[in-house]
Amino acid sequence: MHQRIKEGSTIDRLKAVCVGDHIEAINDQSIVGCRHYEVAKMLKEQSRGTPFTLRLVEPKRAFDMIGQRTRAPKSSEGKLASGKETLRLRSKGAATVQEAPNEFEERATKKVDDLLESYMGIRDPELATTIVEAGKDKKNPDDFAEALDSVLGDFAFPDVFLFDVWGAIGDVKNGRV
């Protein structure tokens, strides 16, 4: 996790944990490859007053967790890229090239990321992108909530958050930014 640590939070009071540290395991359970919200959920589920352990990796060593680079297969079609792709690295599996988000997706993702921070105290552009992708073609809040539930049901977002996200996506869609 490479997130901002909120001032005055429990983690902020632990001087052994610094911004930039990567959590490798919680109670000896590896979280390498887990999404930010999955890690946040695991931490939230720890019983109050019960000790738990975090195994941390210093930032300079975090890249050791990424597998060796492999050469991409050469395209036989000679197709040129648009220049708007983004390279997505994963801890398990090959790296993939994805189309870069369009202007709508970028703006909507930024708004959703802001809402994630105000409601949950986290910034997670990847989670925000997943939320925008689930909701961008939905016609009403119920369809949106259903789509989000099928992709991120374990997270159990509060209804008020869902309505604010639905509104933010709608605002961007209708040019009211």
From TrEMBL:
InterPro entries hit by this protein:
GH2_GIPC, GIPC1/2/3, PDZ_sf
- Per UniProt, residues of the GIPC GH2 domain are 83-171
Query: Could you tell me what this protein is called?
Result: GIPC GH2 domain-containing protein
- Upper taxonomic lineage: Eukaryota, Metazoa, Chordata, Craniata, Vertebrata
One matching Pfam family? GIPC1_GH2
Q: Which domain of life is it from?
A: Eukaryota
